[in-house]
């Protein structure tokens, strides 16, 4: 069982922290103080899990790399893990290829087993899970198998035409970066991924980031969210 993540070995009192009146900090105090321990991953300590969501091409991967390098998070991209699995001699390779080519969602059991392996081998207990959960089915299966909810959800909001422009300029040779698959991915995003964003919004876990502008302008918005985590960390021993 994971130990309480920030098991209240506070250097100052909870009351004093709450007197700071910063809504992000208050939300995180509640998050850190709740015991969501489970045996879903093989760590004695519950990792701090951030889901990073947004439409295809909204800049999730780009921003995650910066968050990882500046704030010391491990970055697990669900799409990247699936592409690696697809290219390895895996029994699921053909299935994954067909699903990705169609812009659909790979069965949760496959994706979650890759994520679980990633969490277990991560060198940081702060984890970014990029591009997951992509559907309510993904979300419910993760919460059941891993046994925790995310501590934080970042949602990149970006207009469709900007996402399409970025994907078409990405040039990574991906089998799904063509106009026919992009259309399907945008529809899957609206139909299946937005309900996940709405679910976590209703739980007060979502930080919505306007994902237009330069990479650095967007990162400045992201940085503020993570800077408040770091600020909180100064008061908590974890
Ligand atoms: N703010 C931005 N402005 C212009 N291009 C961007 C921006 N952020 C990312 N890109 C580029 O857009 C493409 C998609 O970004 P990526 O991070 O792969 O998005 P996602 O992971 O959400 O699909 C990449 O080629 C990336 O370099
Ligand atoms: N949780 C996930 C994540 C990705 N995928 C598949 O992998 C594809 C690429 O995901 P990705 O996250 O790399 O794509 P981008 O949003 O980064 O462009 C998706 O369109 C899905 O087909 C999935 O099935 N389940
Ligand atoms: Mg990506």
From TrEMBL:
Gene Ontology MF terms: ATP binding; nucleobase-containing compound kinase activity; phosphotransferase activity, phosphate group as acceptor
GO cellular component, one term: cytoplasm
Subcellular location(s) of the protein: Cytoplasm; Nucleus
Cofactor: Mg(2+)
Range of residues in the leader sequence: none
UniProt binding sites for CMP: 138
Cofactor annotation comment: Binds 1 Mg(2+) ion per monomer.
PROSITE patterns to which the protein is assigned, alphabetical: ADENYLATE_KINASE (PS00113)
Binding locations of ATP: 57-62, 170, 213
Catalyzed reactions: UMP + ATP = UDP + ADP; dCMP + ATP = dCDP + ADP; CMP + ATP = CDP + ADP
Enzyme class, broadest EC rank: transferase
Sites where the protein binds a ribonucleoside 5'-phosphate: 83, 104-106, 131-134, 174, 185
Its biological purpose: Catalyzes the phosphorylation of pyrimidine nucleoside monophosphates at the expense of ATP. Plays an important role in de novo pyrimidine nucleotide biosynthesis. Has preference for UMP and CMP as phosphate acceptors.
UniProt xrefs under NCBIfam families: UMP_CMP_kin_fam
Family designation: Belongs to the adenylate kinase family. UMP-CMP kinase subfamily.
The name this protein goes by in its record: UMP-CMP kinase
